[in-house]
Design brief:
This protein is mainly beta and 201 residues long. It folds into 2 domains: 33 residues, no CATH class; 162 residues, no CATH class. 6% of the residues lie in helices and 38% in strands. It contains 2 helices and 9 strands. The strands form 2 sheets. Strands 5-4-7-8-9-3-6 form a 7-stranded antiparallel β-sheet. The protein has a two-stranded antiparallel ribbon with strand order 1-2. The N terminus is likely disordered.
Length: 201
């Protein structure tokens, strides 16, 4: 079953009542779940132009906490979305996508990461990788753009991701490069309140 819609096919006689040897016609219809096009009030709704073929990885995660002993995807606790990911066979540059896999209020943010195919073989993809952080905010609309990629969303706002080491909390600034250059880590340690963070030492 599709997470966006289901298709069904019905067969009817072309003329008159059904007979064993009559000529039949087929009618195909589409049933769209109620949340598509009319999301539950307060749910984050994302429209984008991402082309999954242009990414080695493209994932999103409902962020519920921080594990600052790790960098990259492992530093944010939470559940991966099965909707906004290149692993979804139905994922296309069409939308909107309603992020309703977790109940409203059960996560702090959604993080989206795309590892660009451009330059990947030569390890030159870092400047082209997609990073976006989204905080739920009912009633708000916001837009995001990076290179040729764009997103617009409802019931959320896009959060700033620190671009320099100096913007990190002091206790993280002397960590190894794999931490302080990781944009997921930079965002996570600045976004999550201190009482939800663990000791990085």
């Amino acid at each position: 079953m599709s997470i966006y819609a289901t298709l069904w096919t019905l067969q009817f006689p072309k003329e008159g009542n059904p007979q064993f040897e009559c000529e039949w016609i087929k009618v195909r219809g589409q049933a769209v779940p109620a949340h598509v096009g009319s999301p539950t009030p307060g749910m984050i709704e994302i429209t984008h132009n991402f082309d999954p073929a242009q990414f080695i990885w493209l994932w999103s995660k409902y962020v519920t906490g921080l594990n600052d002993r790790y960098h990259c995807t492992n530093c944010v606790r939470g559940r991966y979305s099965k909707k906004l990911t290149r692993l979804n066979p139905e994922f296309t540059a069409r939308g909107p996508i309603v992020m309703d896999e977790l109940r409203e209020g059960s996560f702090k943010a959604i993080y989206i990461c795309g590892v660009a195919r451009t330059g990947y073989a030569r390890k030159l993809n870092y400047p082209h990788n997609v990073h976006a952080a989204i905080a739920p905010e009912p009633g708000t609309e916001d837009k995001w753009q990076f290179e040729d990629w764009r997103m617009s969303a409802r019931n959320e706002r896009f959060l700033r991701i620190p671009s320099t080491v100096e913007e990190l909390p002091v206790q993280y600034r002397t960590l190894p490069p794999e931490y302080v250059t990781c944009r997921i880590f930079r965002w996570a340690v600045t976004f999550l309140p201190p009482d939800e963070q663990t000791d990085p030492s």
